[in-house]
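User: Fold this; tokens only.

Assistant: Input:
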Amino acid sequence: MTRAADLARIHEAIMAAAEAIQPFTPGDVAFEIKSERGDPLTAADEAADRVLREMLPGKGEGWLSEESIDDPVRLGCRRVWVVDPIDGTREFVDGIPEWCISVGLVEDGLPVAGGIYNPTTDELVIGSLETGVEYQGCPSSVTGLPDLDGATILASWSEIRRGEWSALAEAPCEVRPCGSVAFKMALVAAGQADGTWTLVPKHEWDVAAGTALVRAAGGSVIHADGTEPVFNQPVPRYPNFLAAGAGVLMDFRENWMKVYS
């Protein structure tokens, strides 16, 4: 299996999932609450999940999805597909065009390829560590700013509403709200923003594809303590993550993280 074949499979599966979602109207879709955190679930999530699961895993490959029951068999697999059929379901339900389909491929605990597609804006970011990243069919990379001065940092709407970003009001950057975690990371990989981070826990399916893309685009994805996340873990959950070019991350960690946290 070549990386080009992996990327072709990712692209085909993402577009098929988008087609499965098409009958549902963002902003006018029924949903149920699936957890104590109040996360919504729609029939569109489930339809996309079925399509992705049918098309992505091959023989001997594992599967981890937000909308599937976790099968520990994946822990013994070298290659694992880590997906979120709709990352940003809350935005999808509210009709906010900041949701996406997120597909990541993990090999030996390392995200090596991914694709993130926003059907509403028709934005596709796809790539791998070996091939680099394409945004709308053209090569892309992280912006590579040396520090936070003039940077655009994408932040969670809910974190902004809770006041968690107010401590950065004096930082020399623009903080811009955006919905889906995966979509934020895709925009960083595409050079459309300079970074994104959160000190709120996230799951592997939130960030697997985005981690592959940001790194393939020349950026870094780390934990707040500077370590790199390892994927396909028994508990697929992280305490935090930071994604940006090296200069922006260094500036934030050295000069602003204590204020932010």
